[in-house]
Design brief:
By secondary structure, the chain is of the alpha+beta class. Helix content is 59%, strand content 19%. The N and C termini lie far apart (53 Å).
């Protein structure tokens, strides 16, 4: 029986690690080690929940009734604390939801392996990987993203030209802030702007606009 438990742990770790490799390749907050440990821990809790208290039932003269799902049920709520740590709200955008959902389903896959349902666990792992890759392809080619840009300009006219070009190229402007730096011999304007742009071309389009305007200098793109 111990060999079967070890097999379940190995299966959970491999499947969780496969999802973690994909997340790590995409440079997400939770990578291989996190998904590996989540799947392994979930499988272990599932095994303990099912078989960890069997010796108590074998004691004669003791009337004990156990719920084999009680320990496993706590994994579902407990994984929420880890998932919540990957979700952040930054610059009006919520990030990390997909990674948090990936940890949640990785825990479910680990529990499935811990129950010995290998075919179901393998199927779920393949579906998760397909979903993540297809989602990444769709977002890269058809989705949009919010980009925070900070640039400096020697005149207001250049600032207006940059904003007009952004709008002309279909970039939505979500926020805009400008301050005048007049503590030098050559006053200039520093502009912080957040735009919504197609993911597949955002770098080339933004850099192309800036290069066309002499005097405009990009300080940061996030």
């Amino acid at each position: 029986m111990t060999a079967e438990f070890i097999l379940r742990l190995f299966a959970a770790a491999i499947m969780g690690g496969a999802i973690g490799l994909e997340r790590g390749y995409r440079a997400k907050e939770a990578g291989f080690r996190t998904h590996f440990l989540v799947a392994l821990g979930s499988a272990l809790f599932m095994i303990i929940s099912q078989f960890g208290f069997m010796d108590i039932l074998h004691h004669q003269g003791i009337n004990v009734r156990l719920d084999p799902s009680r320990v496993a049920a706590q994994v579902v709520s407990g994984i929420g604390f880890i998932g919540a740590g990957t979700i952040i709200f930054q610059k009006h955008v919520v990030k990390g939801l997909t990674t948090a959902a990936g940890l949640w389903v990785t825990a479910a896959i680990g529990m499935t392996c811990g129950s010995g349902l290998y075919t179901l666990a393998i199927t779920a792992t393949v579906m998760v990987l397909i979903c993540l890759e297809v989602l990444n392809y769709v977002l890269q080619h058809f989705g949009t993203r919010n980009v925070a840009i900070t640039f400096s300009s020697p005149s207001l006219d250049f600032v207006r030209q940059v904003l007009d070009r952004f709008r002309h190229d279909g970039m939505g402007i979500d926020s805009y802030n400008m301050r005048e730096e007049d503590n030098t011999d050559h006053p200039h304007y520093t502009v912080s702007i957040e735009v919504k742009v197609r993911r597949d071309k955002y770098e080339s389009r933004i850099l192309g606009i800036m290069e066309e305007l002499d005097g405009v200098k990009i300080e940061s793109i996030e």
